[in-house]
Amino acid sequence: MLKWSCTGRVFLCGERTGPGKGRAIWEAAVSLYEQDFWAWCRVQAQALCSGHLAGLDLVNLADEIEEAGQADENELLSRLEVLFIHLLKWRFQPARRGRSWRLSIAEQRRKIARRLERSPSLKHKLPGILVDAYGDAVLGAERETGLDASVFPAESPWTFEQIMDAAFLPEEGH
């Protein structure tokens, strides 16, 4: 049986594996994944750090790593969509411009920049992400403004550099 003790922030395996114990530890790790995800994460981290590879739940670990990477991409897509929505609203509803739109635009720019700093390999995916984000943003802007989607350009009229420029706010004709 696997014993757990809490040392600081990490749950540690209370026993070292000997011959034949690897399968039991792996089965316990899989069971823990289903019962207590947080504890499972700590056990997996400790097993990796200590080189205790027999205790790794490789299937679930690989899935979680892949999901973590996908979460970064999804966050980038979502933040770009919100940025595009506010830029479209700014451009097509000048009478409704206000401080909250300006603050939201600035916040999305900061968080997009931070995400790309922390995951720079996402930059090579930007062209596709921008297309998806803009398409979703047109639908969002239609919903939020009450304007017909045909009012908005079919493709983004702005470059990534423009939408990330702190001084850029689209005016008539831009």
List its traits.
single chain, 174 residues, mainly alpha, 6 helices, disordered N terminus
3D architecture notes:
It is a single chain. The protein is mainly alpha-helical and 174 residues long. It folds into 2 domains: 4-56, no CATH class; 68-164. It is 62% helix and 5% strand. It has a two-stranded antiparallel ribbon with strand order 1-2.
Task: Put the structure in a nutshell.
The protein is mostly helical and 174 residues long.
Portion in helices: 55-70%
Give the oligomeric state of the chains in this entry, treating copies of one chain as homo and distinct chains as hetero: single chain
Order of helices and strands: EEHHHHHH
Rg over C-alpha atoms, rounded to the nearest angstrom: 23 Å
Number of strands: 2
Count of helical segments? 6
Number of domains: 2
Q: What's the main sheet like?
A: 2 strands, antiparallel
Characterize the overall form: elongated
Assess the beta-strand content as a share of residues. under 5%
Walk across the major sheet and give the strand order. 1-2
Organism: Lautropia dentalis
Protein name: DUF29 domain-containing protein
Q: How is this fold's topology laid out?
A:
Elements: E1 4-7, E2 10-13, H1 22-35, H2 37-50, H3 58-92, H4 99-118, H5 126-145, H6 160-164
Antiparallel strand pairs: 1-2
Helix pairs in contact: 1-2, 3-4, 3-5
